[in-house]
Write the structure tokens for this entry.
Amino acid sequence: MEIKEKLIEKILLFIALSSISILALIAFFIFGEGLPFIWKIGPHAFLLGERWVPSHGEFGILPMIVGSFWVTLGALLLGIPLGLACAIFLCEWTPPLAATFLRPAIQLLAAIPSVIYGFWGLVVLVPLVRTYLGGPGLSILSGSVILGFMILPTIISISEDALRALPPYYKAGGLALGATHWQTIWRVLIPAARSGIVASIILGMGRAIGETMAMIMILGNAVKMPSSFLDSARTLTTNIGIEMGYASGSHRQALFATGVILFFIIMILNSSAIVLSRRRVE
Amino acid sequence: MVTQISEGLKAEVKDLNFYYTHHQALKNIHLQIAEKKITALIGPSGCGKTTYLRCFNRMHDLYPGNRYEGEIILFPDQLNIISPKIDPIEVRMRISMVFQKPNPFPKTVFENVAYGLRVRGESRRSLVEDKVEKALKQAALWEEVKDRVQDLAFNLSGGQQQRLCIARALATDPEILLFDEPTSALDPTATSKIEELIMQLKKEVTIIIVTHNMQQAARVSDYTAFMYLGEIIEFDKTDKVFTHPSKKLTEDYITGRFG
């Protein structure tokens, strides 16, 4: 009996370690290919170079960093108010029966493959932007809107959990002093759930930065510094996604190096989400 | 049947029935609340005393299906505070509540006390500061926290947190202050401080307190109502209820034979 228990324990340990070791292998591989390259051309030239012409040996990824930044910022500008409003509504006003239908619908939003979002954006949103706002349509604005929708399920479900986890005496206490429902939400419940809400935003941000397929389809993929939100752009992820198929030599290494930068950004975002959500106010 | 009191009245409860959907939790309650006195509600668990207390600031309105019948008349303007025509917000502005468990908000000591003023739209800084200081002094907390009003309220001890909640309720000058077993989560030292404070406060505000602790009711209150199964069994001056109860049930309860 005891031997059997020990055996099961060891097997589970092995399985657990092998899934974690995948992460280690990916990190090892990306860093092994990417870091020497960054070292070779210099972090300065790589991170702040404005020209990306692999055939001439020019590997500056600043336009992509800027592209990622704007698209993500745009997604958050749309996703945070929409997501928070949705979470508050689900938590505070939706009748329980309606919520049982709405919640899975929101989860479904997360289950839609990103290529479908990209397709919808390309067919519906891009022509709208082109017709009514000008520019190529394939733009930071279109990408931001689509990404804003894509991060909604993350923001809604985690914020709603944070609001729902609050002890009921916050709400009762807030109302008992003569506040309206909205005043109680705004002045008591949201501040009390702040750490969870911030974590939801950071995780949404991580998702936005990492999104590739939909962005390849919508952003237009131009390698230049975007000068307005109606310009085409390229993000760090789409840069890898588009070019990896045919890259070789230092071009290939440069794409791995792009991955290193992405890896760092995502790691920083995720760990800050973990730290913030742990710091729940007792 | 129920003793009439001869002092000035702050509220009068007439024929109050209360239902949680189909379950009737309060039956034909008549009661007079004397102004600037302390009225204690005692009785065994489930007798309806907390339900009754919560009628006074319409806390039952939070859940659909709850229903009030009858009247709670608030003086001097004779407003029936449980009438569906009356906005519960308006009632809660005049009748404030302190809960069983200290429930400071995740804010600073200062902002906790200022909350009631802020939701009433008060933004004049000096006025808010004055009122916060006054409320903290009334709640006998000022001396302990005056140097750390910008600290988070959670850093205070349990007893201090409860006095903070009292200060928060006092800051908006309520006419009636409701206490729902305010010391049940506190140690004896903190409890005696709160009791002392409640007795001080009756100079300024009418108080209704629900308590499990009969000694507490005997120590602090002027009037006591004994409740059982959703009804008021006996209501009188506190010393009368505790020394010469007129009902057998009351006597059995206060002598510890049940409950």
